[in-house]
Amino acid sequence: MTFKLKSMFTLYLCLLSVAPCLHSQESKLRQISYNQKTYPLYPVGLNECPPIPSPWTTEEGVEIIIGITRENKYTLIPVTLENEKLPYGEKLRMKRGEQLKVDGKDFPVLAKTGLHSEIELDQTKAITGKSIAEITSSGRPGGSSGAGFMAHDEDIISMLIGDNRLVKKLGSTHPEIVRPLFHVWNLILEGTEHGVWKNERIHSESILYNHHSIHLKYGGRGWQESIFNDEIQGAYHIEMWRELDQNEKEFLKMKYAHLSEENRADLMKKLSHIHTGEMVPYYAMRYGFYEGHTGYRADPIAIVFIFGLKSIEEIEKAFEGNLYKVLADHFMSSDVYSGGIK
Amino acid sequence: MKMKHIIVFIIFGFIGNVGYAQEDKPSKLERWSRLVQKFRSLSYGQWRSMSGEFNDAGDLIYKPLADLLRKEETGEGAWRRVEWNQRSVAWILGDVGTEKAVDFLVDMLPDTTLNLWGRIEAAESLGRMNAVRAVDPLLETFKDKESDTQLRRYAARALGDLQCQKAVSFLIKALNEDINRIDMGVIYALGNIGSDDAVDGLLYALECTENYVRGSVYQHLRRLRPEKEIAFLLLALEDSYWGAREVAVKILSEKGEEISGSLVALFENNKTSHTGRWETIRILGKMKPEKYTKLFLEALKDEDRRIRDESAVVLGRINASKTVKPLIGLLKDENPYVREEAAWVLGEMKPEKAIEFLIDMLDDKDSGWMAAISLGKIGSEKSVKSLIGMLMVKEIKQRRAAAWALGKIQSDKAVEPLIKAVMDEDDEVRMLSTLALEMIGTHGALKAVEDFKLVGQDKQIYKHPRLDIQVEAPSGWKQLPRPEDRLIYEIADTEENVHVMLWYTATMQDAKGYLEKMADMKGLHWEGEPMVVEGKEDDAWKVDATGIVWGIDARVFLTVIQNGYDGRHVDHNALYIVMIWCPEPDFSRHKLQMANILNSVKFTE
After folding, report:
1. Interchain pair B369, A140: CB under 8 A
2. Interface predicted TM-score of the whole assembly (ipTM), two decimals
3. Residue to test with chain A: of B253, B396, B431, B588, most A Cβ within 10 A
4. Using only C-alpha atoms, what is the Rg of chain B?
5. What is the pTM of this model?
6. Cα separation of A53 and A69, whole Å?
7. Which of A61, A254, B10, B526 has its Cβ near the most Cβ atoms within 10 Å?
8. pLDDT at B7
9. Based on C-alpha coordinates, what's the Rg of chain A?
């Protein structure tokens, strides 16, 4: 009897501690309807792929993607971007937090249009109250992280300008491009909430996204502090990639015939693989920052390609024969400030 | 008999012991094998969690380790598994810590049949287990220029862990080889050894090593000779490596006033490098800058542009009236970056007397753009004419800055030029001009923005089927049924976000009075008096109100327009009502469109 009481008390405490982590609307949602048919949501697995687009937004505004579990079951995962303000001083840990927040104080044009104004970036001396020099200093390798948030020869403003030009050339905006990354991160949070970890250090699965099958692999790492004065923190490695289909391979082979086999393979890898962490979606939405050319960069071009936001033909057209160079070159101040993406 | 029993007892006892030993041996071996397997399943970062678990392994451990060291692997990633096996062996031996383990590891060092990282791990383990006997083999490995540089680097680190004074001269000599990887190991070793010779070696390293290596050198020097910490920090201020200087700036800034005397002396010393003097200004500027105003004002004339530049920023932070004139003088500096910084500083300070000088600077091809930005921040109406002129110059950056500044100043005079700029060839000039027009917010400005947004978007006329009134809205909007009142004509966009309703009434009231009465009846709320609808010849009034429409929190443009008199009642006014609304949360998105639709209202013949 004492044991039972103890167990019940422990269970009660567990529930109390878990409850605040649950997402307000979505965690209560257990099923959705599509074309007058009802489907259960994650973690329930389905034997057949539901005839629902992925990503898909319900009439109530719930964003859904289709996941494929390791047991080859299909599952509908709610991954809506949320905007939950954390209590003052609290850091982002295993929560969705403010996923739609844009730093409108430092970048009013970004907040208004989804793209930076270069003239606004040119006059920026501080972001979140931290000087550009300090941010660059802590962002370079060996600063606040060994790998760094940017390469040795990059600085924060050159990064923001460089990526803004990429996104603009892609005919998109930062909030549009960053959405799939948030979907992946919210999927990880959903999984964690439902206890998929179970002693596994690395977890992997696939999702369907704009008719592509995208592989995901993710696992924990030590806590990484932000280089800005904000609540963002990192704790995960996230890898996402997809195979190129035959048409895409042939198209690149034709357009980049001048590249060596090795460089072409590298181009395909850069286009179709991303290794990053959960800080990037928050950074990209808030500041238009995708991290520099380090092992954690989520290149906007790769995001657009992997998640099928644009076709390879559209992407190529935006950069006309320079795709490899654009994906590989660093955003050095001298190049960025002299105009044009290299 | 007794003797017999004793003998039998002894024999059985012996056999028993043998039997016990025979049973015990494999089980212990099994235990170690299991422990080794467990270790191999861990990631590198988790190895430490098994620290101490192999301490009492005894001789039994060597067999499974020797097997693992030579284990062949096949298939994909075989080389990686081999490397992993050998590294595991080296680490475990370091934990075993016996003389025999040292011998085993020493043998691994030169064994080129082993994987490189297995040998490196052996060097690390020897250092970790403080194996003094391994000094000579490690030193030999380090001195051997034919060895891999990574192996030499880790051999150096191990010598450092062993605090091997004997190695110091060889370590210093290796700095001349100019191999970064080895340098990092050497610096670690010298830092750990910490003797006077080693400190000399570290000082020498400042002259001959690469950037990020020097960052680590300063760290060791400060730790080893804390009494000279300030001197080392001041030395770091003159380093060509930015990272080393940043650390020094941070630490010195935190020390505050206690070191200000040393900083001023450093700045005033002729022998101090330009870089060192520049960093000094940065630090003094972070302390109590007012105290050093004179020094900063003097520094505005310095020959180094970074010093002039940084001094301007600090003086801006002080924001005293006596600093304005010298800063204005800096707008004519020979260096464009200094002129730019001075303009930026004045824009932050916002002194009235800087305006005319900033206006003069707009012609500066290199830095004029920042003068425009600053005029925008100051909100100078005086500069509008010049900024309008700047909208048409060749340089893109100047045009962008002018558009940005005009948006900040929000002058009506800029509307027409900005409307032209909305068609600029540069997309950012177009975007900034559009935003500027939105910020100015007059009827003409908003209409231009809406028109611009609707370029390429088909529009169509929606005519009331029974009344002589029409509106223009994007194509494809649908008519919503209003069977309860056939005089009400309602259209909405495809998502039914924006609604437009047109109807009519004949009343003796005037348009304004009727508008107020109707808005009140509908439970709408607004601030102030109804406004005249701009651009309408008729007697037209509107309110921008909030309220509930069809159960939705809505934002409503309610307008009443008088178009003469009612045909049937000569004393009645003909009032046309236009109600445009959308859900309140969507209003900012639809505001311009709603305003434009309202502006498009016309009476038909």
Report:
1. no
2. 0.78
3. B431
4. 42
5. 0.67
6. 18
7. B526
8. 52
9. 21
